[in-house]
Specification:
With 406 residues, the protein is of the alpha/beta class. The chain is 33% helix and 19% strand. The strands form 5 sheets. Strands 2-17-11-14-10-3-4-5 form an 8-stranded mixed beta sheet, sandwiched between helices. The longest helix is centred in the first third of the chain and has 16 residues. The protein is globular, with a radius of gyration of 23 Å.
Length: 406
């Protein structure tokens, strides 16, 4: 039995046979490409996602309560020194790695290219990638050891990201310590749970969210590499914070001392209506609750103040739990290019389909304990979400300049 018949049988089993509707109108090369794309899709996983979407499961409202935390400004000089020394010892012993989420594009910043290539100055020496590399090197110099740096890109920016690092001589890092790997893609679906064809020969695909990190670590070999290197702590951060203190030794010491499986940095909410996720307890378990999931009373609760910065330390034992767990999907209603039943492209002006996303913080409830260190926003948090205004390229430049002068 040929590949076409085998795959058609599988698609029929999962009620997705429409993906081959135009197969016999395609050129041989296009046919092979489509069959290869179908082969690469986990149809059983798509069935799970489609059922989850169609069932519209109503989640019971979790009981949200504050999580214990410590505040950086309130730590004594003696304690800070002790924590930093502990962190540097862990780094020197080769027990710490850094994992950077860098799959985004700079489109909303008016930049054509990966977000990490956006510069806060006049040259690539002040790009988001360069700033993080510089801080990583400073910690390495202090500890007297190299830190493995894993960078998750996306299929749309992987080549450009690698070329940018090569062009800039890896920002004086050792190329051997840097490991690029790609976020995985997953098909988009209609409101009926059907996968979308964006052309007669291609299925519409989109990144599977930052929660796809764990499966990508496993499929790319990153997880195996961490185990071979006998890493204990993985420092996770996003590309879009211009002030992130990469592999912060004090934070690593804080995590080590706390005995928690996850440690997270937070900043104090600047106002009740700041649209940020909160580090908290949901039904008594460590969680990040999005602003949209809070009720009116929770929004103004003066005890729920720890905004998620996207900076975490995962112990390797917890990462193993995360990698072997199944995360729920979140469905983003989006404008998705597609064709109609006749194979013609449709003009789409409003959201018509759904992107399937997983969020990494959905694994947090698996942890028995999460320790939280609240830090100063002005010193450690300058998110780059848009070109101008609040949390923008413009505001990050100002905050970076202010910290450089301090």
């Amino acid at each position: 039995m040929n590949k076409y018949k085998i795959l058609k049988g599988k698609l029929t089993q999962y009620h997705q046979e429409h993906l081959l509707s135009f197969f016999h109108q395609l050129k041989p090369g296009e046919q092979e490409k489509l069959l290869e794309q179908i082969e690469g899709i986990d149809l059983q996983e798509m069935e799970v996602a489609s059922r989850q979407f169609i069932s519209h499961r109503i989640q019971q409202q979790a009981k949200i309560t504050p999580i214990d935390y410590e505040s950086m400004p309130h730590l004594s000089k003696t304690r800070r020194k002790k924590l930093e020394e502990c962190g540097l010892e862990r780094i020197k012993a080769g027990k710490v790695a850094v994992l950077l989420l860098a799959g985004g594009q700079g489109t909303r910043l008016g930049h054509d290219g990966p977000k990490g290539t956006v510069s806060l100055g006049d040259s690539s020496d002040q790009s988001l990638f360069a700033l993080q590399a510089k801080r990583l090197r400073a910690v390495e110099e202090k500890a007297g050891a190299k830190i493995p740096w894993y960078i998750m890109t996306s299929p749309s920016n992987d080549d450009e990201t690698k070329a940018f690092f090569t062009k800039n001589d890896y920002f004086q890092c050792d190329p051997k310590q840097i490991y690029f790997f790609q976020q995985e893609l997953i098909p988009t679906i209609t409101s009926a749970g059907k996968m979308i064809l964006e052309s007669q020969s291609e299925i519409s695909m989109a990144p599977n969210g930052n929660g796809g990190l764990f499966s990508s670590m496993k499929s790319s070999g990153v997880w195996d590499d961490l185990q071979e290197k006998e890493i204990d702590w993985v420092f996770l951060n996003n590309i879009d914070n211009a002030l992130v203190q990469v592999a912060d030794p004090l934070f690593i010491g804080f995590a080590e001392e706390s005995g928690a499986e996850i440690s997270s940095k937070a900043v104090r909410k600047r106002s009740p209506d700041e649209k940020v996720g909160l580090l908290c307890l949901a039904n008594g378990r460590p969680s990040v609750v999005e602003y949209s999931e809070l009720d009116a009373k929770e929004v103004i609760d003066q005890m729920l103040i720890n905004a998620n910065m996207g900076i975490h330390l995962f112990h390797i034992t917890f990462l193993e739990k995360a990698i072997n767990s199944s995360l729920p999907y979140h469905f983003a209603h989006k404008v998705i290019p597609l064709i109609d039943e006749y194979g013609q492209h449709v003009q789409v002006n409003s959201p018509n389909g759904y992107k399937l996303e997983k969020f990494y913080f959905d694994v947090f409830p698996l942890a028995e304990k999460m320790s939280v260190l609240q830090v100063e926003r002005e010193k450690e948090f300058a998110p780059v979400k848009q070109k101008t205004g609040e949390d923008s390229l413009e505001s990050a430049r100002k905050r970076l300049f202010k910290n450089t002068k301090a």
